[in-house]
Write a structure and sequence with these properties.
The complex is a heterotetramer, with 2 copies of chain A (357 residues) and 2 copies of chain B (321 residues).
Chain A lengths: L3 E2 H8 L7 H26 L14 H9 L6 E3 L5 H7 L3 H8 L33 H14 L6 E6 L6 H12 L4 E7 L2 E2 L2 E2 L18 E6 L3 H16 L5 E6 L17 H8 L3 H11 L4 H20 L30 H12 L1
Parallel strand pairs in A: 1-7, 2-3, 3-4, 4-8, 7-8
Antiparallel strand pairs in A: 5-6
Chain B lengths: L1 E4 H15 L3 E5 L15 H9 E3 L4 H13 L3 E5 L10 H15 L6 E6 L14 H5 L5 E3 L4 H13 L4 E6 L7 E4 L11 E4 L4 E5 L2 H9 L8 E5 L2 E3 L3 H11 L2 E8 L4 H12 L8 E6 L8 H7 L3 H13 L1
Parallel strand pairs in B: 2-3, 2-4, 4-5, 5-7, 6-7, 10-11, 10-13, 13-14
Antiparallel strand pairs in B: 1-8, 6-12, 9-11
Helix pairs in contact in B: 1-6, 3-4, 7-11, 8-9
Classes of the chains: A alpha/beta (357), B alpha/beta (321).
The structure holds thiamine diphosphate (TPP) (2 copies) and magnesium ion (2 copies).
One magnesium ion (MG) binds next to strand 5 of chain A.
Chain lengths: 357, 321, 321, 357
């Protein structure tokens, strides 16, 4: 199986134009939410309100927004540390995200885990561990269960260029290929792993390896939310059709340092300049302006929502120290993963059709 | 009631759970068509099919990691490590992903990892290890270690029904050497210690294969009344049972087959030194394998594994204390 | 003599060894151009070049495994884990390949693994662990844990010159908080314990960051004379020093930051209960982090890590015993 | 980089005819030694003289004999459990091998490690650990040191089809590719991993993956010792020329069970029959008969040597129990890896040339 661009496959499958204007607005909104939340979180961090360190995905918003947008409520996701928009798409509220960053009792992990290390099982997500890319195997295992039970569900996870060097990348890719599982691997190639450039991680672009595992690898402009949606949509169709996994390489750029403390001296200025011209949000805004949408209005709404959310989170309580050792073990019945929000209009129409029949 | 070997009891337990609950999924290397390196799942494919008795790729991190994924979406995976030694290759997924999941985000990982462990048959440095101590030290993981056929089945039931990751230590040297009456059908052994023999002069605390070593070593010690406490569950540790035995016997020998430093026995001895100090009429004596890889050649292996003689000697000395 | 922080002492030690012996090779993620996540190797590339300060792929098994290969052909690799937590991903290579190599075939593996460990700064469950107990339980691996700037440099020298795999536990919370006079040039700290403060009523045994907690907690305990023993080397354990302190003080509190069960402190307490029983005038008290992942939020983290107050309380109670 | 057969590259590099008759006899002798030693060891095992379990490489003798034969004294090897001929080529005596199997004090590990888990550092080898394929990383690390020190040396290791599923396979392949290291990876594809067939281990032949790591992958008839030699010879030339790693897939068949206890019921009879016709030793014997060599004579000599070796090993002492805990740690100076035997006549002539100059 040769590598192909998402566009190419898109044409082949005639899978273009899945997005209505409302969907394209949703994508913009999700990306704006991510950016505004992270901007605000960064200033809260500088004010000492966010403990530990802080990681963001500035400039990469399209990767998580576009991919998550193509996933159905019953699908399951492992969201990584540059993928805040995916949490938004699934229905996690900004208030709980701020509370999470600030280690409040009302955050997704209730202060047990930090910053971006979270996932809300109530919306079908399993929170990432720090060890990269361990979640590739967890996602593969979820897909394995779906296949065993004959369920029409797909698992998806993101992972970075650096984490492709870890053994778990290989064990997951190989396992998913051997068992032809309904799983989507989104490689977030943002040019760096902390300070380490690509050529120290691999001699050949990892998307080329998909074929060596027996499935499709596609390369997508990771700064184009709609292209990300299309590629993920197709990957999901393949998975549902029993054609196995897909690896999607989203080519993008980490526009901020690895974490709050990192001044990224090691990144050539020109490189950042180059990529700044390809901002995924400006790109989506331009598209929607052409379509006559008032994007300023949307940003204003987002900012308002974020202000309110931050305020609410700031006034929410810290966890009670007396609960610090609770819940190491589960007692009683395990909580099931619940379905998440799936705002793409296509799902509603599909649902409608099913209701009719 | 039928007399079963320890190994047959594990097989019987697995079969019962597979029949009772279709969420139970067996995963491992060569467990399907071949029936497992030790034949624990022999014949399972015929009854349950290749999908539920899954021959996996040779990838321990993959086995544990995908089992975690299956577990969080409602399966009840039971993973077999071909030898417990190989869990070192799946260590990260087990301690970091499975062990910390529920505490971090309230998501349970009902996962059992079967770990054929222990030495005594010239398995050498990579087929004889007792890794339980590593997992006792990892938060969020339970550890059980049956010593009898009855408990092998009962603890397997408990492990599979537990909503947490459980390391099920099955001692290879007991597979065919230990035989006993095992109740038919499904029953559960509580995650608590068991008094294997009650006594009043001294208690030997052990688990797994060492329970039998302890029983044999203390069968006839010049008429002394020796209690043997079989821990059965190492994490959480049955502290009450340990303190109760020490309270009644006042002298303690702690035996484990694992390497000495930071072993289960170290935790047990430390517990006693802190919480039963006033009950003690002598030092808390430990017998364990020294900090050495388990050698292959019989004379060397016999020299390092805790023997009946060493345990008897330790008891005799302590009785005279 | 110049006052250096604990972190500067590690850097100085590494620089000296790099200058002295061209076989010394530094390997790790982001240690070269970037100078390391904690800037321990900041500026090293300029002096030693990219080859000897190697930015590796993001692959811990790869780091340990290739370092083993380099070591057996004569290099002296010093590997940095970005956080000690990530050693779980290189666990198998360290315990099975490096740890057992010399015993099995007489081939030495002179390898140092630098493990930035410990909590106290909201690092959360994956950036705060203290994994030393796992490696104390693995034969063939030495474990050192400096608590002062002087020892940070001296133990690094000892570790790099040791022909065996050595886990060098550097506590992140001490990096910039601890400062002290450090001798210039190359010197070696022996792999033995150090009396941080001598006393006669009670001894607190600790290592790493907990040495400072112990010193602060016992500075002024109603005039009681409290000894603080800094273990410095956890494997092999300086049993003589421990037994000597206990012999003189008769009361012991063992403190470690690691999770309670099967921690280094369990081994120390078990040693005392077996070998110093007659010297004891009270229970062997332990203070450690309970068996819980290290939570992120400050009030939760403070609640689980051993605090000055907890240690002081433990000492006070034991003194009254 | 596309995959190519050894023959193809052989032609291209004009690298044929490196083997003189004496070399081809050496190859036969090494394979015969391996087979006769393992036959004898198996019967010693059945007599209870070999503790634990026993593994052999019946039918795979060409893979280790041919590859090891192409390596120079100063090269370094990690030999695996089906590769006894490699130990023979490097100069390990049959007596010490029998002693190793029987756990005697005079075995390579002195009874510390068992059966095939050995390697003699005195002949430039690092003994395998059971965890597969951990030695790929160790070999990669040796090659890394050679490159750093600017030494003209190559590291080589073998590994099985099953072990390609492990993360360490990937971490080693990737690391070697990124750093372009002088290392040779010999994939011993013997159709099974214990009872597990290839299609449960991978969806695509792993040799296809070499390109994805940026180096050459070649497929060789693993039952042809001379083809194995040629492919390894070329790989070594590439490594010495700074062209990085090579992956050689040796296609062969495990003709016995995984270990002594395994009746291999799971292997189709026809498959074994098919492969029996391709016995690597008969093949080499046929070639040499054509060249007028008295192969029966060679086998007779080998049998004699093996008889004597077994006898000597049987009379050698068991290790002293009082030494059981010695040597967990190294005290004093580490022993260096020493050079091994390298019987290929090409090395002698090369050496001769150097002496002349
Ligand atoms: C197994 C492991 N080793 C080391 C780290 C420390 N670390 C955190 S992020 C990071 C870089 C990750 O790079 P990449 O995979 O490209 O993801 P990105 O942050 O660029 O999205 C590293 C080395 C880790 N998280 N996991
Ligand atoms: C990491 C690891 N897991 C499990 C095993 C147990 N085991 C020993 S050999 C073997 C099969 C190996 O197959 P392959 O790699 O094809 O080598 P072969 O024996 O066929 O030469 C297995 C699963 C092991 N040695 N290492
Ligand atoms: Mg990256
Ligand atoms: Mg094989």
């Amino acid at each position: 199986m040769a590598t192909e661009t998402a566009q190419a496959t898109a044409q082949r499958n005639g899978a273009v134009g899945h997005l209505q204007v409302e969907d394209r607005i949703w994508l913009l909104r999700a990306m704006l939410m991510m950016r505004r939340i992270e901007e605000r979180a960064m200033s809260l961090y500088r004010q000492g309100k966010v403990p530990g360190s802080f990681y963001d995905g500035f400039g990469q918003e399209a990767v998580s927004a576009g991919a998550a947008f193509a996933m159905a409520p019953e699908d399951r996701l492992c969201i990584l540390h540059r993928d805040l928009a995916a949490h938004i798409v699934r229905g996690v509220t900004p208030t709980r995200i701020f509370a999470q960053y600030m280690g409040r009792a009302t955050g997704i992990t209730g202060g047990r885990d930090g910053n971006v290390h979270f996932g809300d099982y109530r919306v079908g997500c399993v929170g990432m561990v720090s060890m990269l890319p361990d979640m590739m195997l967890v996602a593969t295992g979820m897909a394995m269960a779906f296949k065993l039970r004959g369920e029409r569900r797909v698992a998806l996870t993101w992972f970075g260029d650096g984490s492709t060097s870890r053994g778990d990348f290989h064990e997951a890719m190989n396992w998913a290929g051997v068992q032809r599982l309904p799983v989507i691997f989104v490689l977030e190639n943002n040019q760096f792993a902390y300070s380490t450039p690509l050529d120290k991680q691999f001699a050949v672009d990892p998307v080329e390896r998909a074929a060596g595992y027996g499935f499709v690898g596609v390369t997508v402009d990771g700064n184009d939310a709609e292209a990300m949606f299309e590629a993920t949509y197709e990957a999901r169709q393949r998975a549902l059709a029993g054609e196995g996994p897909t690896m999607i390489e989203a080519v993008t750029m980490r526009m901020h340092g690895h974490a709050a403390h990192d001044d990224m001296k090691y990144v050539p200025k020109e490189m950042v300049e180059e990529w700044r011209k390809r901002d995924p949000i400006e790109r989506q805004e331009a598209r929607l302006r052409k379509a006559g949408v008032d994007v300023e209005q949307i940003d204003a709404e987002v900012r308002e929502e974020i202000d309110a959310a931050a305020k609410e989170a700031l006034s929410s309580p810290m966890p009670d120290p007396s609960t610090a050792t609770d819940g190491v073990f589960c007692e009683g019945e395990p909580e099931p993963l619940l379905d998440g929000q799936a705002p793409w209009s296509g799902f509603q129409s599909e649902a409608a059709l099913e209701d009719d029949s | 009631m039928a007399p079963l070997t320890y190994l047959q009891a594990i097989s019987a337990g697995l079969r019962d759970e597979m029949r009772e609950d279709e969420r139970v999924l067996l995963m491992g290397e060569d467990i399907g068509v071949f029936g497992g390196a030790f034949k624990v799942t022999d014949g399972f494919v015929a009854e349950f099919g290749l999908e539920r008795v899954m021959d996996t790729p040779l990838a321990e991190s993959g086995i544990i990691g995908t089992a975690i994924g299956a577990a969080v979406v409602g399966m009840r995976p039971v993973c077999e490590m071909q030898f417990s030694d190989f869990i070192s290759c799946g260590f990260d997924q087990l301690v970091n992903v499975a062990g910390k999941m529920h505490y971090r985000q309230g998501l349970a990982v009902p996962l059992v990892v079967r770990l054929p462990s222990g030495g005594g048959f010239s398995g050498g440095p990579f087929h004889s290890q007792n890794p339980e101590g590593w997992f006792m030290h990892a938060p969020g993981i339970k550890v059980v270690a049956p010593s009898t056929a009855e408990d092998a089945k009962g603890l397997l039931h408990a492990a599979i029904h537990d909503p947490n990751p459980v390391c099920y230590m099955e001692h290879k040297h007991l597979y065919r050497r230990v035989k006993g009456e095992v109740s038919e059908g499904v029953f559960e052994t509580p995650l608590t210690a068991r008094v294997a023999r009650s006594g009043s002069d001294l208690v030997v605390i052990a688990y797994g294969a060492m329970v039998h070593t302890a029983l044999e070593a203390t069968e006839d010690l010049e008429g002394a009344s020796i209690e043997v406490l079989d821990l059965r569950c190492l994490k959480p540790l049955d502290e009450d049972a340990i303190l109760d035995s020490v309270g009644r016997c006042s002298k303690v020998v702690v035996v484990d087959e694992a390497n000495f430093t930071c072993a289960a026995g170290a935790q047990v001895a430390a517990l006693i030194a802190e919480r039963a100090f006033e009950d003690l009429d002598g030092p808390v004596v430990r017998v364990a394998t020294p900090d050495v890889p388990i050698p292959f050649s019989p004379p060397l292996e016999q020299a390092v594994l805790p023997s009946v003689e060493r345990v008897r000697e330790a008891c005799r000395e302590l009785l005279e204390y």
